[in-house]
């Protein structure tokens, strides 16, 4: 079992931090981390219902026991985290998550191919969807309306786009992403018709957008020198994304035209890896720094606020928001609650 970093814990109104003490009068941090509920599981995805629950999930692909998968829920990502009764997942990896007002979908892959799991946060239960999607795995999910979801499905030659109007019970094929974007990594829909997909292809990082719910896609203009887009999130008109360069470093990008074109965006985060936009003018970026996790919020066009972070020793890999004041993120070993 891989060793995990220890988490400092508040005790009796004081917080031990290095060799000093933080007094009770110190303002609370903007972001607070806590260990994942199952130490054997590596968290990989997070999503939030609008104004309601946030879910964080992951798997242990080497185990077929009950502890091989874990789903945690929290009211807005802030009121503590509780376990969801979830089925064991054998040889599985979760790579996608999205929520609507009364439920969430998880997507990924197992030994047989694509995998879908539906979560009822209010009842704290999860179940494997009976519907099956083709391909080797679900790369990304976006559910911009109640029960209305798009799935990007990885095949041997391209990425297929599927749609559901019944919370994932049934799916129908819509299209494929452009050949230049053969491998998708993320999907974001500001409305049921306006979506952005990102990933990579034969010539490097690529992004595409649709204005008809996924039936037709057009490639976006983007900076040169990028190997792969890692994450993306769009509000009504402002989008954020992260991308890895060929030298392994990462950077933050923005689009002010619903994903039609992308430009680099200045950030104080050393290694941005995750983004979420939760209004027409506000987005969040998260990732890592020399001392651990890092989060910053942005107000359009270029106002940055770096959040204070405690008990997050590792970089954040995903973030989501239930509202403008209640957001959550994950590292592989922890959940992080924050106010942007």
SSE topology sketch:
Layout: E1 15-17, E2 20-22, E3 31-35, E4 42-48, E5 53-59, E6 69-75, E7 82-83, E8 93-100, E9 103-110, E10 113-120, E11 125-128, E12 137-145, E13 148-154, E14 159-164, E15 172-176, E16 183-189, E17 195-201, E18 204-210, E19 218-219, E20 226-234, E21 239-245, E22 250-255, E23 263-264, E24 271-277, E25 282-289, E26 292-299, E27 303-306, E28 309-310, E29 318-321, E30 327-331, E31 334-338
Parallel strand pairs: 3-28
Antiparallel strand pairs: 1-2, 3-31, 4-5, 5-6, 6-7, 8-9, 9-10, 10-11, 12-13, 13-14, 14-15, 16-17, 17-18, 18-19, 20-21, 21-22, 22-23, 24-25, 25-26, 26-27, 29-30, 30-31
Describe the structure.
This protein is globular. The two termini are 34 Å apart. It has one domain (31-338): Kelch-type beta propeller (Neuraminidase, 6 Propeller). It is mainly β and 340 residues long. The strands form eight sheets. Strands 28-3-31-30-29 form a five-stranded mixed β-sheet, with no helix packed on it. The protein has no helices and 31 strands. The protein has strands at residues 15-17, 20-22, 31-35, 42-48, 53-59, 69-75, 82-83, 93-100, 103-110, 113-120, 125-128, 137-145, 148-154, 159-164, 172-176, 183-189, 195-201, 204-210, 218-219, 226-234, 239-245, 250-255, 263-264, 271-277, 282-289, 292-299, 303-306, 309-310, 318-321, 327-331, 334-338.
């Amino acid at each position: 079992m891989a060793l995990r970093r220890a988490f400092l814990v508040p005790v009796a109104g004081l917080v031990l931090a290095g060799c000093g003490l933080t007094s009770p009068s110190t303002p609370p941090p903007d972001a607070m981390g806590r260990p994942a509920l199952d130490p054997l599981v590596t968290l990989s995805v997070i999503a939030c219902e609008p104004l309601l629950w946030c879910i964080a999930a992951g798997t242990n692909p080497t185990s077929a026991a009950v502890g091989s998968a874990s789903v945690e829920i929290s009211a807005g990502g802030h009121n503590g985290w509780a376990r969801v009764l979830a089925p064991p997942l054998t040889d599985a990896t979760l790579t996608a998550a999205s929520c609507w007002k009364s439920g969430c979908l998880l997507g990924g892959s197992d030994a047989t191919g694509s995998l879908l799991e539906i979560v009822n946060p209010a009842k704290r239960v999860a179940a494997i969807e009976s519907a099956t999607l083709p391909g080797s795995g679900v790369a990304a999910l976006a559910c911009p309306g109640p029960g209305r979801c798009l799935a990007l499905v990885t095949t041997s030659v391209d990425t297929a786009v599927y749609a559901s109007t019944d919370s994932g019970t049934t799916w129908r094929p819509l299209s494929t992403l452009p050949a230049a974007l053969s491998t998708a990594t993320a999907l974001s829909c500001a409305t049921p018709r306006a979506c952005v997909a990102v990933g990579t292809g034969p010539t490097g990082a690529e992004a595409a957008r649709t204005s008809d719910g996924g039936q037709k896609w057009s490639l976006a203009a983007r900076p040169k020198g990028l190997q792969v887009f890692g994450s993306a999130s769009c509000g009504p008109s402002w989008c954020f994304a992260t991308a890895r360069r060929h030298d392994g470093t990462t950077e933050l990008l923005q689009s002010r035209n619903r994903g039609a074109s992308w430009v680099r965006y200045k950030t104080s985060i050393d290694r941005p890896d995750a983004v979420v936009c939760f209004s027409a003018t506000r987005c969040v970026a998260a990732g890592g720094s020399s001392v651990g996790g890092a989060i910053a919020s942005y107000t359009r066009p270029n106002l940055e606020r770096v959040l204070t972070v405690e008990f997050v020793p590792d970089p954040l890999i995903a973030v989501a928001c239930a509202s403008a004041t209640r957001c959550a993120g994950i590292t592989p070993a922890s959940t992080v609650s924050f106010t942007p």
